[in-house]
């Protein structure tokens, strides 16, 4: 084995960075430039001055380093999370009100040099909510009107009732309009609840805007949930094809002003049907289906099934059924022909009878016309004689008072109405006062009609009593004959209605 040369011993170790090996210097510079964080923008660029806006700062290599700090002016943006391309944090409340603030980002105490601004604007406000009602299960659409509603990132609406808080979602349409779904008032569906409820608290969750958590400028009421009766006692309703399905229930139309309506969806299995709603029932025009399907009603946040429906298919007729139908149809045709023959014969007899009656009527008219001519001639003679007598004596007549009393109270010469009121004792003033008050009641149409109808329902009220009462009322209403005529029209209308309903002809007062 030969000895090693003397100059082959290892020499001193040399340390060099980039000078000995240029490729290491290039690689280290590339690594340094790769991990340098840069910022390109942020979203959104504005939010309410109460803070709470979820801000995303976008850039490159933002996941480098062990810690990150984001400042909105002098306020720290609450850190939420970050990746290599974005940093997410929640804006703090503004200390200087509305306006622009500078954003600074530092990673491991090294500040990223990039000019970014965030604008604080006025907090959103709510001015009006339409409609101001929902049902207990909620999820009915509400339209919210206000200001700066488009800056709220995840708007929600809330109610609190009986210690339970319920939240539902909203969607901003523009800066002044937002659509929301009403939260449910109760956790479970209670069919027997039929009273109107008011929420203990009602408000909105708009980022960090605390003012709208409890909104007291609305009278949002919760009407009872619609209740549907079972389709049948067995739970399955037998239905013919094309026949409408009737769902009976209550609270189907909320008693809110302005013709409030609920948006019903009725599913026969998975297929919706056309719906018509009234106060006590819901009419569903079923699709062209056969078989048994579950019926589900959806309205707001309520999903309820009153049962199932079995739509029977049209079965083909068998030969015995066709023969039976043909025999029945032939028999029916024979009966119709016999009825037509009998009707024609009866019509001929009626025509002959009508002709005989017509001839008798013509003869009677001729005799009556002849008698009228003779009577007219005699009347002319009598008139001439009376005229010659009236030239001296004048036309005999009675005064209105005597005429009215003889018409209203025939056969009574000295009626108490004609005399002054005399009451024994000290009750004269009380009686006069009572009569004045009763006279005021008589001049009230509602009281007078009720009074007459009540008297008519008394079985002990005789025809003589009816005539006396009618005469007394007409005497009291001599100064208001138009009013008396109007009352008589109402009474005659009642009489006509009763005669149409019944074959009997009741004898009623003041007819």
From TrEMBL:
Q: Which residues form a coiled coil?
A: 347-374
Taken from the record, one Pfam family name reads TIG
Tell me the InterPro entries matching this sequence.
Ig-like_fold, Ig_E-set, IPT_dom, Plexin, Plexin_cytoplasmic_RasGAP_dom, Rho_GTPase_activation_prot
Keywords for the protein's UniProt record, in alphabetical order: Coiled coil, Membrane, Transmembrane, Transmembrane helix
- IPT/TIG domain spans which residues? 36-121, 123-223, 225-320
Q: Is the keyword Coiled coil assigned to this protein?
A: yes
The organism's superkingdom is given as Eukaryota
User: Which SMART domains does the protein's record reference?
Assistant: IPT (SM00429)
Q: Entry's SUPFAM superfamilies? A: E set domains (SSF81296)
Q: Where are the transmembrane segments?
A: 321-343
In its UniProt entry, what is this protein called?
Plexin-A2
What organism does this protein naturally occur in?
A: Characodon lateralis
